[in-house]
From TrEMBL:
The keyword Membrane applies. Keywords: Membrane, Transmembrane, Transmembrane helix. The keyword Transmembrane applies. The chain crosses the membrane at residues 6-27, 39-57. Residues 299-551 form the EAL domain. This is EAL domain-containing protein. Residues 149-290 form the GGDEF domain. InterPro entries: Biofilm_reg_signaling (IPR052155), EAL_dom (IPR001633), EAL_sf (IPR035919), GGDEF_dom (IPR000160), Nucleotide_cyclase (IPR029787), Rev_trsase/Diguanyl_cyclase (IPR043128). The lineage of its organism: Bacteria, Pseudomonadati, Pseudomonadota, Alphaproteobacteria, Sphingomonadales. Pfam families: EAL, GGDEF. Signal peptide: none annotated. It comes from Sphingomonas baiyangensis. SMART domains: EAL (SM00052), GGDEF (SM00267).
Length: 562
């Protein structure tokens, strides 16, 4: 009967029952001599039996259909989210196998949805609320309290977690994050158990960033005490399977209502305070303050001004000559960025850091690339043979595409690479990637020269320095500023100059502020000099005119005006 409906089965059952009743009645009433009369009586009995069987089957079908209707209705409610209600008793009575299957299905769905919710709302590594759950819960906690009710938000950033992740692996890093979470819970429990504060809400926002909200803070002054407790807990060593590690943390603290009443306002304030803690040396807790707020506003305004400067083409290049220490010839010029701000000319020191933080250094770098290529092309057309030195920023040294774009811009402008010199600071040069070194080597193969800038401020690996494709080394002004008056300073400077000469590189002394400095550096072997005592930075037209002056080819004493 597989494939047939229940109703058709009931009909077959009634017909079969009637047929059997007909046969039995016929044999019972015919006395072994069936006739029409006995057949009629047997037929009546068969019809009655069939009708009764059909009625019984119809009643069973009605009960079965009702149970199925209730099962369908229950499944519909389950699809709408109701997994708690019991399976209807009619289903359990009429179709127990179906009822049992439904109950198991609802149980598994409930368990699965619970797991999904936990994954969506809790961090799987630390079992703390994730960013979404923390924000929702924190907003609800703050909304339940008066706007003036004191609360404190702690933004916690681990200081040396990345090094642990990089050296010991992500599995060990996850284990460490779990230990950090446990220590934060312990700090929260300690302050909650003293009776003065409610239990804090702790969350992991992302990576090595954690938050802790005390929505019930009896005394706002306790925020600093809690901050110190967190620092102390995270400063202790962590005993990992491979070794013991120390990480520490930087903490930003924002208080309600002083620093905002809403969670977004508190998080912005705590985040800013945390970055201030990192700037101040890490391993400390900083409260948000009006001074910090003013600095943030200034940085935001500076970023807006920088964007306007790009749109209004307010940047320009100036050039400071570099002179041969032996005869005063101009051998090059360092290209320096200037900002023609409406309030006055701004030097890079006043805006480069913010440009790097905001990412605007990329756009500024693109402008510099185009400007350098166009300027070198103009100089080459005028017969200028002096090289142009260009500083490479931290963001650019990490981006191999910058060097590819510079090379392409030189080719596109028809600018000879031989007139270009790239200046890379000592510290950045020590950490160049192989891809960046290959890109620099390609520019050098085209004719460009490479200089190490600010030499003497870092901790150079001499073997690494020997491997770098460099032509010149610029001494930091800290090595040259006292050579005229200090024998010790002269000895150190001369030793460094000899070291650089041993690497077959020229030495450039920058920051020359007096003729005495220039004379001493020339005597102890410096090859090229640069500084305000020789010439101040000037725009392109002034520099080209300065090149044509007789003093540009005179001995150094005349170039210095003596």
């Amino acid at each position: 009967m597989e494939g047939h409906s229940l109703k058709s089965r009931a009909i077959v059952f009634a017909v079969c029952a009637g047929a059997i009743a007909f046969i039995l009645a016929l044999f019972a009433t015919s006395n072994d001599r069936p006739d029409a009369d006995s057949a009629a009586r047997a037929l009546i009995a068969a019809i009655v039996c069939a009708v009764l069987c059909w009625a019984a089957a119809e009643r069973a079908l009605a009960q079965y259909a009702g149970a199925l209707d209730q099962a369908i209705a229950r499944m519909t409610r389950a699809a709408q989210g109701d997994l708690e209600s019991a399976v209807p008793s009619a289903v359990s009575l009429c179709v127990p196998e179906l009822a049992d299957s439904m109950q198991r299905l609802f149980g598994r769905l409930h368990e699965t949805l619970g797991n999904v919710q936990r994954m969506a709302m809790y961090d799987p590594v630390t079992a703390l609320p994730n960013r979404t759950h923390f924000r929702q819960t924190a907003e609800a906690l703050l909304a339940d309290r008066e706007a003036a009710a004191p609360a404190a938000l702690f933004f916690i950033d681990l200081d040396r977690f990345k090094s642990v992740n990089d050296t010991l692996g992500h599995a060990t890093g996850d284990m460490l994050l779990g230990m950090v979470a446990n220590r934060l819970r312990a700090v929260g429990d300690r302050f909650a158990h003293d009776g003065a504060h409610g239990a804090p809400l702790i969350g992991r926002l992302a990576g090595d960033e954690f938050t802790m909200l005390f929505a019930d803070l009896a005394d706002p002054a306790d925020a600093e005490r809690i901050g110190r407790a967190i620092l102390s807990a995270l400063a202790d060593p962590f005993d990992l399977p491979e070794r013991e590690v120390r990480i520490g943390a930087s903490i930003g603290i924002a208080s309600r209502p002083d620093h905002g009443a809403s969670l977004p306002a508190l998080m912005r304030a705590a985040d800013a305070a945390m970055y201030r803690a990192k700037e101040q040396g890490r391993g400390r807790a900083e409260r948000y303050s009006t001074t910090l707020a003013a600095e943030i506003a200034d940085r935001a305004q500076l970023e807006r001004d920088l964007r306007h400067a790009m749109e209004r083409e307010q940047f320009t290049m100036v050039f400071q000559p570099q002179l041969d220490a032996r005869d005063g010839r101009v051998v090059g010029a360092e290209a320096l960025l200037r900002w023609n701000h409406p309030a006055g000319l701004k030097l890079p020191a006043s805006f480069i850091q913010r440009a790097e933080e905001s990412g605007l250094i990329v756009e500024i770098g693109e402008w510099v690339v185009g400007s350098v290529a166009a300027t070198i092309a103009r100089w080459a057309a005028l017969g200028v043979q002096q090289r142009m030195a260009v500083n490479i920023s931290r963001r650019e040294i990490d981006n191999v595409q910058f060097f590819h774009r510079l090379r392409a811009a030189l080719h596109g402008a028809g600018a000879p690479a031989a007139l270009l010199e790239l200046e890379i600071t000592e510290q950045l040069a020590m950490h160049c990637s192989d891809a960046v070194l290959d890109a620099i080597a390609a520019l050098r193969a085209d004719g460009a020269s490479i200089a190490i800038d600010d030499f003497g401020t870092g901790y150079s690996n001499l073997a690494r320095l020997r491997e770098l494709p460099i032509d010149r080394v610029k001494l930091d002004r800290s090595l040259t500023e006292k050579v005229a008056g200090s024998a010790e300073a002269r000895t150190i400077a001369q030793a460094v100059i000899n070291l650089v000469h041993g690497l077959n590189c020229e030495v450039v002394g920058e920051g020359i502020e007096s003729s005495a400095q220039a004379d001493v550096l020339r005597v102890i072997g410096c090859d090229v000099l640069q500084g305000y005592a020789l010439a101040a930075p000037m725009d392109e037209a002034a520099f080209l005119a300065w090149l044509r002056l007789p003093r540009a080819a005179a001995p150094l004493s005349r170039a210095l005006g003596r």
